[in-house]
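Hi there, hope your week has been kind to you so far. Thanks so much in advance, here it is:
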Amino acid sequence: MPKPFPDKEYYSISEVCGITGLKSHVLRYWESQFKILSPAKNRAGNRAYRKNDIQIIQLIKHLLYTEMYTIEGAQRKLAQLKQMGKKGTEALPVSEKNQEILQDIRRELLELKDLIVE
């Protein structure tokens, strides 16, 4: 499950590294390999990532590290997902264990809501 990140307009490369658990040289390399990943640059020339960029990075990380795709395979998969209209974390699979955890959280939240309403 992707790590939540603070609600901001732009993120620095160091913030993105902290969120994704990747090193900056990996992010810069991925920018050269994945055309879909191209963060804007500010006046100083520093990368300014948006939420969508971070979601794409998380998807690429999942494809490469969890699904064990090659760079070329991940590029093809991203192109396929783009054709299907999926983007960012929508394309990440939800494991059975994560689904159970989400259901437990939902159940607990509903119980808390009932306690508050009474």
The chain has a mean pLDDT of 83. The longest strand covers residues 40-41.
